[in-house]
Here is the input.
Amino acid sequence: MAMEALFSVCSNSLFSANQNHKNITLSPFLTSDSLPLSSQLKLQTGVYLKLHDFPPLVVSRKKVLKCISSHERQETSSDEGESLKNGVRRKNLAVFVSGGGSNFRAIHEAILSGEVHGRFLVLVTNKHDCGGARYARENGIPVIIYPSTKNEPEGLSSNDLVAALNTYKIDFILLAGYLKLIPSELIQAYPNSILNIHPSLLPAFGGKGYYGQKVHKAVIASGARYSGPTIHFVDENYDTGRILAQRIVPVLVNDTAEELAARVLRQEHKMYAEVAAAICEERVIWREDGVPIIRNKANPQHYS
Here is the structure.
């Protein structure tokens, strides 16, 4: 449901709220071209609700969260009839981005086409004006800012982030070019439920500082003949969680970092959508040694 509709659902309780609360304030929001939108209601959860010609108001965070939670329960209950042939319910997803969010867009398109039995309920970013955040707003997906920094003073704390995601009843978190370390509070709250994609064949060329073009330059400089994306579960460190899926991409003799990056990214888009489909269909299982593997959809006796 679009944010305008969500506001209409909550408006009666919002306007009757105690005016002494100061937890939530009105603030304008700017698009990428610096043109102000209509006034918006900024919740402490980081969710922006568009207001049009309503008078200024302040309401308690608890009251608004209760209203949003009620709305999400109603929307979730309306989807209970939607299931795959095996009866698996549609999964609630959150995505974390710091940049353009091309992997997020690829998965979202797969959702819209019916390939992924899930839905994005919220986006988390450390850069409110990044391309991924703009795409989310254009598609009616709420945006949360995390963490709080000098450049993003409206960002949430780790505990408030966990509380906000719990409000949306998130099943899985997908990192798609998010450059901040995931807090331990979130990892503990979502065990084996946070995935990240990295543009090299981990464990090679991973860890702190290895992101974007830096990864591809390092791969080429090493003389490696193959690279490719890796999807792994997230732990407390950069790029050290259990590997779930990989795809091989050849490194050509005269490759530049930009050419290799483009070739790897095409495979990222395909693989992340496939993995998103697998987790939403509950086809990820864990071997006795703790290694996650994906059950083939067409042939459940085969794994990848």
Summary: The two ends are 36 Å apart (CA to CA). The first strand starts at residue 25 and ends at 27. Confidence is low (pLDDT under 50) at residues 1-74. Helices lie at 3-15, 61-78, 102-112, 131-138, 158-167, 184-189, 213-222, 257-280.
